[in-house]
């Protein structure tokens, strides 16, 4: 555990019908979503000794990562990278795994196996294919890291496909007024249950006919879109159905975020930055969904090799 390390989250069995693991985190946890998780780091400290459980790998070849780190690779992984002349890009294997885990085709075609055991990842047969897959995986990892700005998604000139998504709005028009409680989350998104556990609420989501500028079939906006309310007056306009339904670790991401920020639970109003964070999260998810075709094509290329 040290600054700059990242982990892939996974479970040996996916308890839900749909697979939604493979998250990338920059802070080690003991749990993610609906159950205990395992976290696989990109790096190990160079002076860290393997536990007895992995005694067979004590003499495994290592690939140095600099700054007192080495890549977290088994002997077999090192041998694979060297076989395709990619040991100088050892992190590519980590990000290739991320890319495959987030390909919808991989998730659906392997759904039964993923509910029974660890994910199995097909390996590219060439250096070029591995690096191309890793590039996609890096993009996925950037989008999943809420602490990391993503140009075109959360900063700079926003991608025109994302610009209309989850815009903070006021019913009837006008400006958000913090003094009037416009950023109080009071639409029934969550409440403090027994022993301080936050329980999700139904909230307030209004389905309406999408305007022409909002239609985006790739994000599930064909005839209808969603407006998600903080309270009776303020809402995030145009949240695509697929974005609203997106889950990680078994929970709807946006709904879970809101459930912990209901005013009685949070004890205060949202800040304007927190309200804008919902817009940023929705756009991150939307960009991930727009990557689906590329991720599927990459998975099928690798699986067919």
Explain what you see.
The protein is an alpha+beta fold and 305 residues long. It is 31% helix and 16% strand. It has helices spanning 75-83, 91-101, 104-109, 111-114, 127-144, 241-245, 253-259, 263-266, 272-290, 292-303; strands at 7-10, 24-25, 38-41, 43-45, 64-66, 69-71, 167-170, 190-192, 198-200, 205-209, 224-229, 234-239, 247-248, 251-252. The chain has a four-stranded antiparallel sheet with strand order 7-12-11-10. Strands 2-1-3 form a three-stranded antiparallel sheet, with no helix packed on it. The protein has a three-stranded antiparallel sheet with strand order 4-6-5, with no helix packed on it. Strand 5 (64-66) and strand 6 (69-71) form a beta hairpin. Helix 2 packs across helix 5 and helix 5 runs antiparallel to helix 10 (292-303). The radius of gyration is 21 Å and the shape is globular. The model is unreliable at 52-56 (pLDDT under 50).
In a few lines, what is going on in this structure?
31% of the residues lie in helices and 16% in strands. With 305 residues, it is an alpha+beta fold.
Strand-helix topology:
Elements: E1 7-10, E2 24-25, E3 38-41, E4 43-45, E5 64-66, E6 69-71, H1 75-83, H2 91-101, H3 104-109, H4 111-114, H5 127-144, E7 167-170, E8 190-192, E9 198-200, E10 205-209, E11 224-229, E12 234-239, H6 241-245, E13 247-248, E14 251-252, H7 253-259, H8 263-266, H9 272-290, H10 292-303
Antiparallel strand pairs: 1-2, 1-3, 4-6, 5-6, 7-12, 8-9, 10-11, 11-12, 13-14
Helix pairs in contact: 2-5, 5-10
